[in-house]
Design a protein that fits this description.
This protein has about 325 residues and is of the alpha/beta class. It folds into 2 domains: about 220 residues, Alpha-Beta Complex (Spore Coat Polysaccharide Biosynthesis Protein SpsA, Chain A), CATH 3.90.550; about 80 residues, Serine Threonine Protein Phosphatase 5, Tetratricopeptide repeat (Alpha Horseshoe), CATH 1.25.40. The chain is about 40% helix and about 20% strand. The chain is built from 13 helices and 9 strands. Strand 6 and strand 7 form a beta hairpin. Helix 9 runs antiparallel to helix 11, helix 11 packs antiparallel against helix 12 and helix 12 runs antiparallel to helix 13. It starts with 10 loop residues before the first strand and ends in a 13-residue tail after the last helix.
């Protein structure tokens, strides 16, 4: 008598997209090249303003490439990245795993195969993450980010690094659902709002190998990094980190020195960006918050004091 074959765990891929009719196709091609194909794909057009070109280009890709897995496009009014991800997640089937792949990021061919293999060896895992390679299309610069720390000290790793993990991570669908998905009130920093609480739910695995490519400033005018739209993005991030690390359960998982250092950093940078934007009142509040974490930091005191000095208008020289 032979044992019945083990059932294959299923994966849903959600891709939010807005005004990227060509860039998203390159991302979709990396799904088609997977040695272990996904079980379902939902692309969410988040209120594109290109006369339906983005959604139609994806629909044409589905028709022409005829993927071996169910694939569809959902259109919605512009609600932001969190809203689009939640819409796609709700529209998909009840798979064991879900990945939220951004429309300008590229998977290596074995990404799904090795992440699922790692998960099979650890049935209680909450997520599996691959390494990241950030590629700046305008300068050609590349940065490799080793995500192995997510397996050993996930909360500290999230604090130390750029936590752009969603495009290269498989998440347990039931845990994402239990967390309520992404916070639709957040238009930047929404990843960290979900990632930090998930680190409390069980082991977080690392899948070594070829990294996921995260593209920035890609040629062609279609790239619009979400976070760069906000003059106060550091303040938005500082508020998220501050609130999360005030929770006793999360605070207990991070190194206290690292916590103070990073919260100081976010609030200090928030003050700097608002100072440059000529909003000294708000900048002063951010520097004051930074001093809460480093009360003896002389440069922060100096910047806080400078916020009381009126701006000097440049004198115009008569022609």
């Amino acid at each position: 008598m032979t044992d019945a074959p083990k059932r294959r765990e299923t994966v849903l891929i959600v891709i939010p997209v807005r005004n990227r009719p060509r860039l998203v196709l390159k991302t979709l091609d990396t799904l088609l090249a997977q040695t272990h194909p996904p079980d379902e794909l939902v692309v969410v057009d988040d209120g594109s303003t290109d006369d339906d070109e983005t959604a139609q280009s994806v629909e044409a890709w589905i028709r022409d490439r005829a993927p071996a897995f169910p694939a569809g496009v959902v259109r919605q009014a512009h609600g932001g990245l969190s809203s689009a991800r939640n819409t796609g997640f709700a529209a998909g089937g009840r798979t064991e795993w879900v990945s939220f792949l951004d429309s300008d990021d590229l998977w290596p061919p074995d990404l799904l195969a090795r992440c699922l293999a790692a998960a099979e060896r650890s049935p209680d895992a909450v997520a599996v993450t691959a390494d990241q390679r950030f590629v700046d299309g305008s300068t050609g610069e590349e940065l490799l980010q080793d995500a192995s720390g997510m397996e050993t000290e996930p909360a500290n790793w999230l604090l130390r690094n750029e936590p752009c993990l969603c495009s290269g991570t498989l998440f347990r669908s039931d845990l994402v659902r239990a967390q309520g998905g992404f916070d639709e009130q957040l238009f930047t920093g929404e990843d960290i709002q979900l990632l930090f609480p998930l680190t409390l739910e069980g082991p977080w695995l690392h899948s070594p190998g070829e990294p996921v490519v995260y593209q920035r400033d890609t040629p062609g005018g279609e790239d619009a990094n979400n976070s760069r739209r906000f003059e106060d993005r550091f303040r938005r991030w500082a508020r998220i980190y501050d609130a999360l690390l005030a929770r006793p359960d999360l605070r207990a998982t991070v190194d206290p020195t690292l916590r103070r250092e990073r919260l100081w950093y976010f609030w200090y940078e928030a003050g700097e960006e608002l100072f440059v934007a000529r909003n000294r009142t708000e900048a002063r509040g951010c520097f004051a918050r930074a001093l809460h974490y480093k009360p003896l930091h002389r440069k922060t005191w100096s910047r806080w004091a400078k916020c009381f000095t009126p701006y000097r208008e440049k004198k115009r020289v008569a022609p």
